[in-house]
Amino acid sequence: MQAYSVEELNRQFEQHLQAGQFFTLRRAAEHWPAPDIAALIETLEDEQAVILFRLLRRQKAAHVFELLSIKQQQALIHALAGKRQRLADLLNRLSPDDRTAFFGELPGEITQKLLNMLNVKEQNAAVRLLGYPEESIGRLMTTDYVAVKYHWTLKQGLNHIRKHGVDSETINVIYVVDEDFKLIDDLRIRDFILADPDTDIQQLMDNRFVSLQADADQETAIQTFKKYDRIALPVTDSKGILIGIVTVDDVLDVAEDEATEDFHKFGSLQDRILDPLQAGIFFLYRKRIVWLMALVAVNIISGAAIASFEDTIQAMVALVFFLPLLIDSGGNAGSQSATIMVRSLATGEAYMKDWLKLLIKECQVAVLLGITMAAGVAIIAGFRAPDIIPVVAMTMVCIVVVGSVVGLSLPFLFTRLGMDPAAASTPLITSIADITGVMIYFSLANWYLGL
Fold first, then answer.
1. CATH numbers and ranges of domains, the chain
2. pTM to 2 decimal places
């Protein structure tokens, strides 16, 4: 199927729409890839988006709907509210995991109305998935999979796959279960195709497989997919019973959401803001004010620290010139360290047990950084105030080391306390570096200058 640019599709859409050629537009849309149609719909006005969506055949409409943003999905559902049969057909055709993700973003009363439109089978699946905790793997999985019994022959297994695999999310991997539907192995479809049809399935088994727990956090799925490089993984309950699968496309969506959430937390936002253009003023205000007020309180301590060295400042006014430069250097060094550590903890490249080893290495790096930066600031001090060259040089080394240690340690501390390490935000680290920087700078000045 040929791929199209959004601009090309938009040109064709506008051309057919203005000419009133709806039947021609529908036939053209049959040849457009679903991801391209979804991208086009995201750029259209609401009325045009509804027209295009309603022209799609039902199976393709369901596929396109799964690829749309939550905001666009909600707009289409609202537009289709008067078309109960069309809306019910769409909801029944959605894959269980995508439908659960959509329902999870809606108010409870709307979700209940949409649930009532589902047939009995899909309604039971939706209610079961919605019963799992938010951000759990149970919310992420789909119940559309195919499994075979271990005592069957490959011929029996292939017949079962042909009959029930049509609705499966993927058949690249076939799951083997016992009589109680307990997962005991997973086999690649190529093993089924290449082996003798009369071979028993259990002869191909090695009882080695990787699975996910339904009540585990979705981040677990990200790490497992990354570690084992799979396109799908089975999901079991606490007794090992196979209840669904998770596919890599859903995990990629979760990884993107987690990265967005961490990015916002690192900028001292209470929660992620996915669409600032559509968000209300007071919504944006609420998301930002708490952390900003908390940081104001922290910065008061920094001001108090400066005030406590008033006599030192009066005796050597030149010290003030270098104060912003020095404390900002500590905050910048800490932010770099924190960025590296937050990512490493999030991706599983570093663990709590690695803290001391990383601390020792970070201190060595920070000393080298501090010496290099101290040489630069010493040159500047030579033109401005030669008498305090040793003070600013020693302070630079100390502040960079302290800032780096704080930036490295805070994500580990937050992890130890059961908090998201991304909450160790850049402004928080900068504020802490400011306070310690002021104390170090003026204490060294007092000592060196005999004040």
1. 6-131 (1.25.60.10), 147-248 (3.10.580.10), 281-449 (1.10.357.20)
2. 0.57
